[in-house]
Amino acid sequence: MPPINIAKLIKRRDFAPVLNRLVAALGASVIIEDHHGKLLLSTADAVRQTGYPVSVAGEIIGWVNGNEQAGAIAALLCHQAESEFEKRTLAAETLNKYKEITLLYEMVEQVTCCLDTKEIARLVIEQAKRVLELSSVAVLLLDKESGLMELVATHGQELDGTRSIRPGVGIAGSVWSSGRAEIVNDVPADPRAAGSARVSSLMCAPLKAKDQVVGVIKLGSAQPVNYSADDLKLFTTLASLAAVAIENASLYEQLQEAFYTTVYTLAETIEKRDPYTGNHTKRVMEYSLAIGRTMGLDQETMTRLQLGAVLHDVGKIGVRDAVLLKESALTDEEFEQIKRHAVYGEEMISGISRLRTAIPGVRQHHEKFDGRGYPDGLSGEQIDITARVISVADSYDAMTTDRPYRKGLTIDEAFAELRKHAGTQFDATVVDAFFASDVMEAYFIANSRKKILDTID
Known about the structure:
Beta-Lactamase; four-stranded antiparallel sheet; elongated; alpha+beta; Hypothetical protein af1432; single chain; 3 domains; six-stranded antiparallel sheet
C-alpha cells in the first residue's frame, strides 16, 4: 500500500477548508512541509520556531513549523492522516477478501468439473500463483504402490530437487506425517532442509481427504518472504478444496480403470474364439492411439478412439463359428455374414450408455474413404475420425497376421499397401500419421540400424 501523501492530504476538497479555518481561528503562524522539506503551505507572517512532526503508522510524512498553535495543526494533520490510512487499510483488506472469495469460488467451480488428478493439481498451482507471493510450487500425490509422494505438477524451479518424498523426511515429509500445515520463513536455518533447500521461505500443506493425507502441496520464494497466518489460512483452504477434488477424481479413475478392464476382458473373450487373431485387439488399440496422438486429437476423441478400437470386432460374437473360423476362403454369402459384424457390434453396445461413444468406431471401421466400404457406404469426412483411424490400424494388423488360408504380408509389403490405397480405401491424412507415429518411428529406427549393420557385415 503506498504511503500517505501529505501534499494531497492538505489539498483535499473536504479537508482544505477545515484546515484553513482552524489556522485562522487559532491565529496560527505555520509552515507545512513534506518529509523531504518541500514547502506545501505557509501563512503570511510565518516564522520558523518549533517543528512538530506529522506521522502515520510510525512514519513521519511531514512537518509543521511555527508558534505554539502549530502543535494543534500538526495534531489535526496526524489525525487526518491516520484516518486516511485506516480507510486505505480497510479498503485493501476488503479487496483482498473479495479476491480470496472470488478465487475460492472459481477454484470450486473448476475442480468440481474436473475428474483428472493431474489437471486438478495444475489448477491449484494456477490459483496459488494468483494470490500468493511465490517463485515455486509443487504438488505431490500418494502413489499407493510405492508408498511415496510422487511429483505430479510443478511451477518454477523444483523446491528441493526431489521428485518424491518419504514420510517424516524433510519439511514436506514432516507435514505429511503430522497432517498439519507449516510456515518456514527461514528455510536454510531449518535442519529438516538438510542443506538442499532452493528457497528462502516456504509454506507446505497436506492434502487431506477423509482424514487421510493423499498428497502434499508446497510453495516457496527464492527471496525471503514473511508468510503470515492469513497466507497459511488461504493456502490450506486451497489445499482442502484440492484434496476433496483429487479424492473424487481418484475414485472416478478407479471406476474408469475397472470399466476399461471389463471392456478389455469382453473383447479378449470374443477374440479367443479365433486363435489366429491373438492380441489383435490390443495391437489395433495401440496403433490407433499412436495415430491419434500424432494427429493431436483432443482427449474426448482419444477416449472414443480407445473404446472404439477395443470394441471394433465385438460384433463377431454374432457370426457363426463355421464362418468365423473357416480355414479356407469365404464364399460371397459367408463374407456378407462377416460384414454384418459391424452392425451386430453397434446393436450390442447401443444399450450401454458408457459405450455409446464407441459406436462410430465400431460400425464404421470398414467404411472406405472413397465410399465403397460397408455397412453404409459412407465416404470422406462422413466417416467418423475414430473409424478412419481404426480402419488403418485394423487393416495394417490384419495384413501382417497369418491366416489359415494365407500367410501375412511382410511389414514393408503392408506399408506399400497402405500407401497404395491412401486416399481411396484410407484417409491419406491418417495414413501419414500412422507412418509418423511413435510406434512406426521406433520400427524405422530399428530397421535403419539393421540395414547399417548388414552393410557393415
